[in-house]
UniProtKB/TrEMBL annotation:
Species of origin: Alkalidesulfovibrio alkalitolerans DSM 16529
UniProt keywords, alphabetically: Phosphoprotein
InterPro entries tied to this protein: Bact_response_regulator, CheY-like_superfamily, Sig_transdc_resp-reg_receiver
Protein name: Response regulator receiver protein
Pfam family name, one: Response_reg
The Response regulatory domain, residue ranges: 4-120
Keyword Phosphoprotein: yes
Biological process terms in GO annotation: phosphorelay signal transduction system
4-aspartylphosphate modified-residue sites: D53
PROSITE patterns: RESPONSE_REGULATORY
Xref: SUPFAM superfamilies: CheY-like
Length: 121
């Protein structure tokens, strides 16, 4: 059975690229343009994994991750942060809030796919 992935990024180009990579690997993908949109999509469907950016309007990725992790039903969904913010403080913040992995853009597609498959078991 195909796994569902939620991609949250304000860049349409990044959303489309990551969606293309994941669909090519056989995953079902739904995209969201910021954290608020991501929460709406999360509540309306079931996801096996989330890939989220950090810098987004309306609700940034850190607030989005915090909101996801505060809810019992979503506590165990693996989250990968995919962001241009590569400073140690950003990486630590993402991981402390509950992200399983933090990857800095531009990430190699092969590495992203490998990490997604690893987190999905």
């Amino acid at each position: 059975m195909s796994k569902n992935i939620l991609i949250v990024d304000d860049s349409k180009t990044v959303r489309n690229l990551v969606a293309f990579i994941m669909k090519k690997e056989g995953f079902r993908v739904i995209t969201a343009e910021d954290g608020l949109d991501g929460l709406e999509k999360l509540y309306s469907s079931e996801f096996d994994l989330i890939i989220s950016d950090v810098n987004m309007p309306r609700m940034d990725g850190f607030t989005f991750i915090r909101s996801v992790r505060e809810q019992e039903a979503y506590r165990d969904i693996p989250i990968i942060v995919l962001s241009t913010e590569g400073q140690e403080k950003d990486i630590q913040m993402g991981l402390n809030l509950g992200a399983n992995l933090y990857m800095v853009k531009p990430a190699q597609p092969e590495k992203l796919v490998k990490n997604v498959k690893m987190l999905l078991g």
